[in-house]
Specification:
Blueprint: H1 7-22, H2 34-38, E1 44-49, E2 52-60, E3 63-68, E4 76-80, H3 83-90, H4 102-107, E5 108-111, H5 115-121, H6 124-132, E6 136-141, E7 146-151, H7 160-178
């Protein structure tokens, strides 16, 4: 009888493979037991990458949250602009921040940061790095964490190496934003 590959099993096996990329084992170490990942209550992996704590967690079959534990440059929430937020914006009811770059402003909704800081933070390099992380649902810079909720369709080719690439891009975004001098730093934190 063939084994049915469930979404839960698929996400856990994905994390097992990702764990092997993050922490290649030495020949003298015992192999990781794949069944250990199958017993987890959620498809979640906490590991270390370049001396930083990182976390990967599937919130749904094709939604992967990737987080780096570090101190971000600012406190903000960024997500794709949707129909509802566009309507609220036209009515003057939106709390979004615009940076004055038409294409970026039309694509993304920025919240929880002053307009001055947002304009300084989302310079051309940072905007390119944000675009490179697509497709994603949202990107958050919190008190001690930088995280992104990615669209990660495992059955369509999103692989552990893709998640590692996204982690590297997230860290590059962190470095680029930390290099920016924010005029209103601390006002929204």
């Amino acid at each position: 009888m063939p084994i049915k590959v469930t979404e839960s099993l698929l996400t856990r096996r994905f994390l097992l493979s990702l764990n092997m990329l993050l922490s290649p084992r030495h020949p003298e170490e015992p192999p990781v037991d794949p069944a250990a990942f199958d017993r987890l209550p959620r498809a979640r992996l906490v590991g270390e990458w370049q001396g930083l704590v990182c976390e990967f967690e599937f919130l749904a079959a094709d939604e992967l949250r990737i987080a780096l534990k570090l101190l971000p440059a600012a406190h903000l929430h960024l997500r794709r602009e949707g129909r509802a937020s566009r309507i609220l914006g036209r009515l003057g009811l939106s709390r979004e921040v615009r940076i004055g770059e038409k294409e970026f402003d039309e694509r993304y909704l920025i919240q929880n940061i002053t307009q001055k800081d947002a304009r300084a933070l989302f310079n051309p390099r940072v905007r390119r790095l944000v675009d490179a992380l697509e497709p994603f649902f949202n990107l958050e810079m919190l008190d001690q964490e930088l995280r992104i909720l990615k669209y990660a369709p495992l059955r369509e080719g999103y692989e552990p190496a893709s998640a590692l690439h996204d982690l590297e891009a997230l860290f590059e975004l962190h470095l680029a934003t930390r290099a920016v001098d924010l005029p209103d730093a601390g006002l929204k934190r």
